[in-house]
Automatic annotation (TrEMBL):
It is an enzyme of class 1 (oxidoreductase). The lineage of its organism: Bacteria, Pseudomonadati, Pseudomonadota, Gammaproteobacteria, Alteromonadales. It comes from Bowmanella denitrificans. Pfam families: HMG-CoA_red, HMG-CoA_red_N. This is hydroxymethylglutaryl-CoA reductase (NADPH). Residues 7-122 form the Hydroxymethylglutaryl-CoA reductase-like domain.
Length: 514
C-alpha cells in the first residue's frame, strides 16, 4: 500500500525524543488505520545505527520487549491512535540539538515502511506545577481526583458541583484532556413542534440548553404559531465540508499550471483521499489563484459526522500524494485559512459549509394577530427596515437571532459549539401573499451538525439526540431540518415581539433573575 512520505512522517510523535537516565526514548503513534507490526528492522539516530541489543519496544498494552523477542513473535497489534514507545538503553544522553531519526519496519497492511524525521531532545524533568497525568489510565478516578486537588490548591477554592457527574470518564477519551468534571447547563424543552421535512416528519419536542431567560419561551411561542399553520417545511439543499490547503510556487504561471494538473488527476486524488475513510466522499475541488499561490478547497460529504477531522485526514493524504507526484511545489500548508474553520465568512455563505438548510412557512394573518398581536405587513416592513441595518453593520445574518436557538441545541446535543461561528450565518426573507398572509423563509448556509461521533455520544448529549430520534447513523439530515425549523420559529417570535413592542416587557417578566 502506497503511503505518501508526508503522511508517513506523521507516525512520529514530535517532541517525544527524550533523555531518560541511562537511555533515550521516542515514540510512534498510529495515525493511519488499525495495523499489525511484524518487524522492526533498523533504527538510526544522527545517521548511526543503534545496536539491536539496546533496543526495547513498549507496546500499546504496556508490555516491554527486547527487539529480538519482539521480532521473533512476528505479530503485534498496533491499533489506530495507539502509541509504540522505543527505548534505547545504556547509551550516552543526546545533546540538546536537532537529531535525524530513521525507523524501518514492516507492518500489515502497509508493507515495509521507512520513516525519516528530525526532532529535538526534550529533557525529562519533573514539573511540580504541571497538571497531573497518567500514562496508563488518564480517565481513572484516582488521577481525576489528583487533578481536582491540584486545581483546588492552585486556585485556593473548592470543587463541588463540577466534580459531580453521571457519565463514565473513560467514554470521554478523544473528547477532552485533563478531565476534572462537568459544566451543568440547564435544559428546557419547547414544542411539540410540527415539521414537514424530507427526513424530519411529524411532531418534535426540542431540548434547548441555555441560561438566557425568555429564550425557551420565545421559541415555544414561535412553534405554537407554526403549528396553527400546519407546520414548517424544512429542506437540506446542499452538503459540503472543507479543508483548504495552499501550494506555493515560484511564480503565478507555476500555480496556474498546477491547477490544470489537479483537474486532470482528480480521480487519483479522490482515490487517495477516500482511502482514509469509509465515510468521506470527495465531491469536488475548488481552486482560487492569487499571486504565486494556488488555494485548493477540497469539498467532502462526511455522512453523519461534522467531519472537520475526517476531511483534514483525507485532504492530508491527498496532498501527500500530490507532493510526491508533482514537481515544482516550493511550499505547502494543509490549511490556508480559506476553509474558514470556526470563523464566519462570505465564501461559506456562497459555497456552503456543513449543511445548507432552508426552512419556510406561510403564516395566516389571523394566526399572527391571535398569537403575536401583529399584522403580516408589520413583520414584512420591519424586516425591510432591519435589512438596511444589516447592510450598514456588515453582519452575516439578515435575521434577528438564529444563533440563539442553534447554540442552545448545540450545547444540548453535543455539537462542537465553536461551529456556531459559521452556523450563525442566516438569510431571512419575507413577502406578503395576495391573501394578506406572510411567507417567511430562513436559509442557514453553513450549519455544521453531527448525529454520530464527536461529543454526540456522551451522556446527556446522546439522550437529547435520542429524544428527537436523531442519534446515530443516517440521522444528520433529519437533525439539520429540525435545527433549521427551530431557528425560524425563533425569528418570527422575536420579530413579532419587537414589532409589537412586547420585547422589553417579556424580558422583564421571564428574563430577570430576581
Amino acid at each position: 500500500m502506497f503511503i505518501p512520505s508526508i503522511l508517513l512522517k506523521q507516525l512520529y510523535n514530535r517532541g517525544s525524543l527524550t533523555n531518560m537516565g541511562s537511555g533515550v526514548r521516542f515514540s510512534l503513534k498510529n495515525r493511519l488505520k488499525d495495523a499489525i507490526v511484524q518487524e522492526v528492522s533498523e533504527i538510526r539516530i544522527g545517521g548511526k545505527e543503534v545496536p539491536r541489543d539496546k533496543i526495547f519496544l513498549q507496546l500499546a498494552d504496556g508490555q516491554t520487549l527486547p527487539l529480538a523477542e519482539f521480532n521473533s513473535m512476528g505479530s503485534h497489534d498496533f491499533p489506530l491512535k495507539s502509541s509504540l514507545f522505543v527505548h534505547i538503553e545504556q547509551c550516552q544522553p543526546l545533546p540538546q540539538q536537532k537529531h535525524k531519526i530513521l525507523v524501518s519496519f514492516k507492518a500489515s497492511p502497509f508493507g515495509t515502511l521507512k520513516l525519516e524525521v528530525e526532532d529535538v531532545v526534550t529533557e525529562n524533568k519533573v514539573d511540580h506545577n504541571k497538571v497531573p497525568r497518567s500514562d496508563t489510565d488518564d480517565y481513572g478516578e484516582e488521577i481525576i481526583q489528583a487533578r481536582q486537588r491540584f486545581f483546588e490548591q492552585f486556585s485556593d477554592a473548592k470543587i463541588n458541583h463540577v466534580g459531580k457527574y453521571s457519565i463514565d470518564p473513560h467514554s470521554l477519551q478523544g473528547n477532552i484532556e485533563h478531565f476534572i468534571g462537568v459544566a451543568q447547563v440547564p435544559i428546557g424543552i419547547a414544542g411539540p413542534f410540527r415539521i414537514n421535512g424530507e427526513h424530519a416528519q411529524g411532531d418534535f419536542m426540542v431540548p434547548l440548553a441555555t441560561t438566557e431567560g425568555t429564550l425557551v419561551a420565545s421559541y415555544n411561542r414561535g412553534m405554537k404559531l407554526f403549528n396553527m399553520s400546519g407546520g414548517v417545511k424544512s429542506t437540506v439543499v446542499d452538503d459540503a465540508m472543507q479543508r483548504a490547503p495552499v501550494f506555493v510556487f515560484d511564480d503565478a504561471r507555476g500555480a496556474r499550471d498546477f491547477v490544470q494538473w489537479i483537474r486532470e488527476n482528480l480521480d487519483s486524488i479522490r482515490h487517495e483521499a477516500e482511502a482514509t475513510s469509509s465515510v468521506a466522499k470527495l465531491t469536488y475541488i475548488d481552486h482560487f489563484l492569487s499571486n504565486k499561490f494556488a488555494f485548493l478547497r477540497f469539498n467532502f460529504r462526511t455522512g453523519d459526522a461534522a467531519g472537520q477531522n475526517m476531511v483534514g485526514r483525507a485532504t492530508f493524504a491527498a496532498c501527500g500524494w500530490i507532493l510526491d507526484h508533482y514537481k515544482g511545489i516550493r511550499n505547502f500548508y494543509l490549511e490556508s485559512n480559506f476553509a474558514t474553520d470556526k470563523k464566519a465568512s462570505q465564501i461559506n455563505i456562497m459555497r456552503t459549509r456543513g449543511k445548507r438548510v432552508v426552512s419556510e412557512i406561510t403564516l395566516k394573518r389571523e394566526h399572527l394577530l391571535q398569537v403575536m398581536r401583529v399584522e403580516p405587513k408589520q413583520i414584512d416592513y420591519h424586516g425591510r427596515v432591519a435589512g438596511v441595518g444589516s447592510f450598514l453593520s456588515g453582519v452575516n445574518n439578515t435575521g434577528l437571532h438564529s444563533p440563539n436557538g442553534i447554540t442552545a441545541m448545540f450545547i444540548a446535543t453535543g455539537q462542537d459549539v465553536a461551529n456556531v461561528s459559521e452556523s450563525s450565518a442566516g438569510i431571512l426573507y419575507s413577502e406578503l401573499t395576495d391573501d394578506g398572509d406572510l411567507y417567511l423563509s430562513l436559509t442557514i448556509p453553513s450549519l455544521i451538525v453531527a448525529t454520530y461521533g464527536g461529543g454526540t455520544g456522551i451522556g446527556t448529549q446522546r439522550e437529547c439526540l435520542e429524544l428527537m430520534d436523531c442519534y446515530g447513523r443516517d440521522r444528520v439530515y433529519k437533525f439539520a431540518e429540525i435545527v433549521g425549523a427551530v431557528a425560524l420559529a425563533g425569528e418570527i417570535s422575536l420579530a413579532s415581539a419587537i414589532s409589537s413592542a412586547d420585547w422589553v416587557s417579556s424580558h422583564e417578566q421571564y428574563g430577570r433573575n430576581r
